[in-house]
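Deviation from plan, reported transparently: alpha-D-galactopyranose complex.
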Amino acid sequence: MVTENSRKSLLERIDRRFRADFGVAEGEPRRFFAPGRINLLGAHLDYSGGDVLPMAIDRGIYAAVRRRSDGRLRLASVDQELVVDVAEDDVGLHTRPEFGWAGYGLGVWQGFRQRTGVSGGFDIVFGGDVPMASGLSSSAAIEVVTGLALDAIFETGLSRQDLAVIAHAAETGFVGLRCGIMDQFASALAQPGHVLLLHCAGPTFEHVPFDGAACEVLVMDSKKPRELAKSGFNQRVAECASALEILRTHVREHSHLAMFSIEDLLRARSVLSDVLFRRARHVVTEMRRMEAGVAALKRHDYESLGEQLTASHLSVATDYDVSCDELDELTGAADAQDATFGSRLTGAGFGGCAITLVKPGESERVAAAVRERYEARFGVTPEFDVLRIGTGPCEL
Ligand code: GLA
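Because the crystal trials were delayed, the predicted structure below was used instead.
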């Protein structure tokens, strides 16, 4: 759990690293935060023009930042040796292996520069309390905190939505993951006490209250690395694009896969391969689960919301093929507990984290039961944390 103390000590480590790598001569850095996220429902719908329901959490990425005027970009992180030091004119259009994780920040700089016309460079040190590459969107949080910081130190007055768009372009254009808009929008637009209902086809959005006193969100980290995440993810994006093309040719001219109905799919059954049919079936049925889940959330019916989560997990595991034994075990073990409402993997899948919605005060007991089952099967100890809705992105 995030405490005042854990946050304070992380900020001190960031400050120490800043002083060690960049000195303090040119002025004190300013500090910013952007949250990670879980997604309650709407699995893999964002890049098919569907609706998603992410919740920004109280964990994320912090950054200490200072403006420069000599055109150098210097990026460091408390958890890594690597310091990237590059001239702003040498960054290029795509990340390079030597940039490592710093590619997210450099991609944002490129988009920010293009959008605002500023130049001069910056020093930045990152630190985070969201586990890297576990499906909680550490990369989107790095992108959003970089954008937020640049906007503040260069006084460019961009909106949160502008920052989300720049962050998303950094990930898809500069880094090269063909992700949808969910993670960057979830981080940039987060509001305390609310989840984001994002209609990705617009995009348009609304904030829906989430009652943390009626339902706890327990995250369960499988500790299984998401090795296939990038290749598998890009493959799903390509499969959805192919299914869309076929449906547009044979059924109707919708602009997004999420707009088709199950009847449309059945009409095109003979021209869709089995794999494409199953991918498309996940997308169109997940849209129905979103509708039911959002209606349940709006009437504070966490029991029904949980049922939609469990059904969503089954669909990503069978039709979309992005789950794995570890995530199925975590969600199955959680669902077997009376105190849970429902469970699913979160993020892209292929490993990483799952979430379960739990009756208030029961998370510790549920975690103990799931841990025992998981350890017995895999000989690995999963990690658990009760997530809270955070403050959203801010300057500290
Ligand atoms: C990753 C991507 C998101 C989204 C999810 C799956 O987190 O970055 O855009 O597609 O997977 O819902």
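The pocket of alpha-D-galactopyranose is lined by residues 39, 43-44, 46-47, 179-180, 182-183, 347-348 (CB under 6 Å). We consider this an acceptable substitute for the interim report.
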